[in-house]
Structure to design on (431 residues):
């Protein structure tokens, strides 16, 4: 009886343990994982698994060897292989990819911001690269990654055929505010605004491609001006203390509005992967009609992925450029040098020359990230080099080449997010 008790006690004492801290945190917050009670120098695989709001499964994994104490520590030990390599504690998130047999060309996007991104992290014996569901893990922990901090409020905005979602930080306000414009994929994308509100900004995600009861023919400068005014006049917003943040076509609209609008006068603006080569003089319908006329400029690589960037150069030759010399507020440009969708780096260089000539170059700050692609999202988001995409101008579904390499793109997302937040606070906190 004594020997049996001693055997069970020893087994319990040596059972591997996995700790992930914090168990609950914001999506832009780092976590730390530690595995203990392993034999020294044991090969193990750390694996992450997430089921998206679209019911697709995503995974990442790294191969490790325990130290002389039988431990693996994410912030100091190297992954020797897997979906990421090196000392990359957040690699279990940013290197996620669809599991084998998943739908082709999908993208991971959060739809319900009030539910966390649940990530199951497990440790397996040996260095394995597939068949995780057929293996029994040595230990498992679930981490909750929240897009919204406790106390953040979500408000539906439905005014004058305008559709958006306003996120308000905890407290009584008033708050500095951000008008958040996503890209050409359309829909109401809320998760970046939710994170911004978690950092103290009243942020309104605006839908402008195909919202309810609004045609593209009716989506012109006045639509964005109404959105800006609604945000500026909200009782929880610090009046005239607004920024505009745009990604992709959202950046194109941002540059047009801050250059020409008599209504939109932000304290600062941020443009991610955008260009001044596409003047939006009339409606978005007319813009997409113009793009359709230059469809012959699209290129397709050997993997049948569409390279879109040359289309904007053709538009510029026909319509000219946005006169960024008219911009009167600080402007931050965030670009990846492997952007295959927009000529963002070339545009930034040309904008710098135009603003130098106009005498407002001091307002411009440029961040260019080597090896990063077009979709520079909040930190630790998986990298998407190419995904399915519906062209607004033709209603055709293609595979769009966004560009970028996984590890440098992940670095760009983490570094850019810190600098975007610092930029917003610098200019929106000023009197």
């Amino acid at each position: 009886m004594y020997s049996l008790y001693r055997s069970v006690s020893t087994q319990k004492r040596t059972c591997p343990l996995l700790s992930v801290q914090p168990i609950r945190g914001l999506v832009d917050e780092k976590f730390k994982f530690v595995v203990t009670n392993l034999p020294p120098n044991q090969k193990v695989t750390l694996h992450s698994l997430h089921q998206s709001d679209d019911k697709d499964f995503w995974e990442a994994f790294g191969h490790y060897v325990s130290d002389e104490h039988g431990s693996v520590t994410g912030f100091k030990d190297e992954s020797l292989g897997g979906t990421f390599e090196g000392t990359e504690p957040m690699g279990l998130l940013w290197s996620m990819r669809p599991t084998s047999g998943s739908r082709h060309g999908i993208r991971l996007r959060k739809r319900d911001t009030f539910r966390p991104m649940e990530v199951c992290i497990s440790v397996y014996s040996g260095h394995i690269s597939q068949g995780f569901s057929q293996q029994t893990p040595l230990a498992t922990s679930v981490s909750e990654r929240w897009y919204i901090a406790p106390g953040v409020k979500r408000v539906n905005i439905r005014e004058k055929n305008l559709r958006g979602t306003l996120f308000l930080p905890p407290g009584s306000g008033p708050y500095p505010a951000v008008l958040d414009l996503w890209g050409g994929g359309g829909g109401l994308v809320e998760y970046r605004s939710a994170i911004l509100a978690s950092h103290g900004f009243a942020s309104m995600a605006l839908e402008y491609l195909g919202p309810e009861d609004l045609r593209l023919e009716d989506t012109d400068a006045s639509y964005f001006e109404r959105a800006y005014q609604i945000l500026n006049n909200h009782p929880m917003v610090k009046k005239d203390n607004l920024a505009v943040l745009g990604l992709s076509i959202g950046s194109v609209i941002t540059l047009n509005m801050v250059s020409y609008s008599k209504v939109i006068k932000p304290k600062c603006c941020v443009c991610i992967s955008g260009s001044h080569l596409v003047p939006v003089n009339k409606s978005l319908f007319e813009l997409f009609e113009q793009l359709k006329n230059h469809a012959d400029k699209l290129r397709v690589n050997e993997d049948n992925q569409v390279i879109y960037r040359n289309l904007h150069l053709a538009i510029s030759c026909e319509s000219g450029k946005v006169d960024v010399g008219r911009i009167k507020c600080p402007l931050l440009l965030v670009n990846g040098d492997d952007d295959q969708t927009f000529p963002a780096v070339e545009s930034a260089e040309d904008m710098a020359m135009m603003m130098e000539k106009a005498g407002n170059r001091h307002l411009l700050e440029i961040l260019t990230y080597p090896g990063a692609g077009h979709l520079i999202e909040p930190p630790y988001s998986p990298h998407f080099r190419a995904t399915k995409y519906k062209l607004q101008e033709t209603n055709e579904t293609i595979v769009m080449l966004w560009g970028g390499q996984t590890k440098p793109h992940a670095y760009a997302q983490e570094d850019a997010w810190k600098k975007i937040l610092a930029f917003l606070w610098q200019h929106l906190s000023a009197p």
